[in-house]
Specification:
single chain, alpha+beta, 15% helix, binds the ligand Nc1nc2c(c(=O)[nH]1)N[C@H]1C(S)=C(S)[C@@H](COP(=O)(O)O)O[C@H]1N2, binds molybdenum atom
């Protein structure tokens, strides 16, 4: 699964260590919170016009043949979708801002994709399924609570500003949870696992905050 590495293993470890050090030192923290109704830019963020690329340095090529989207675990009706089956589900357009823990935000991204609620409605979470773990093709994982995933502005997106989401940004299909820092939005998503108990993911076990609300500046914790 990690056969598509684009930077050497050693360099990748260094990058991960540096971000872990930042988390330990509380870098970029302003120590303030803000109300999303009162201001559009969360505390400590700066507005950019582009869309930076941030990942582990592995950018897997998920061809239509390799694509599978599973929604399983604590659900009544596990789903395992091919790309054509995913694309045949009801599609929704949305617009949202993005906020990355490394301090950049950008506004008014136009997305198209399938809503989290559409998928959850089909899979039917079992009582007691309170947590979600995203598993990606590069081995990355990240976790949210089910109520954070089961929200009207959460989508599995395939199109950004009218173009297919590129490989570097997690295409063909990535998660989009706009109200949380972007590390919660898994690129190249492969599996959505519902669970009774929480399980911190890649960055959450390396010093990042479990909840990741930019308005509360939950960068590290
Ligand atoms: N599969 C996968 N998803 C991932 C990551 C990753 O390394 N692998 N990095 C996360 C982090 S730390 C960030 S900030 C965003 C960056 O998304 P972008 O590169 O499209 O801006 O993706 C998140 N999702
Ligand atoms: Mo990140």
């Amino acid at each position: 699964m990690n056969d598509d590495a684009t930077i050497p293993e050693g360099a990748r470890e260094k990058l991960i260590e540096r971000k872990q050090d930042w988390a330990r030192d509380g870098r970029l923290l302003t120590g303030t919170t803000a109300d999303p109704q009162a201001q559009r830019l969360p505390p400590g963020q700066r507005l950019v016009k582009d869309w930076p690329v941030l990942d582990l340095g592995i950018q897997p090529e998920v061809t239509p043949q390799k694509f599978r989207l599973d929604l399983d675990g604590a659900v009544e009706n596990p789903l395992s979708l091919r790309l054509d089956e995913f694309m045949a589900l009801p599609q929704v357009d949305s617009v949202s801002d993005m906020h990355c823990v490394t301090q950049w935000s950008n506004y008014d991204n136009r997305w198209r994709g399938v809503s989290a609620r559409e998928l959850l409605g089909r899979a039917r979470p079992k009582p007691g399924a309170n947590h979600v773990i995203f598993h990606a093709h590069d081995g990355y994982t990240t976790n949210v609570r089910l109520d954070q995933f089961d929200a009207p502005d959460v989508f599995l997106v395939h199109t950004w500003n009218g173009e297919p989401i590129s490989r570097v940004h997690g295409g063909p299909v990535r998660v989009l949870i706009p109200r949380l820092y972007l590390w919660k939005s898994a690129k190249w998503v492969r599996r959505i696992e519902l669970r009774a108990s929480d399980r911190p993911g890649f960055w959450e076990t390396r010093g990042y905050h479990n909840n990741a609300d930019p308005w509360l500046e939950e960068r590290y914790g």
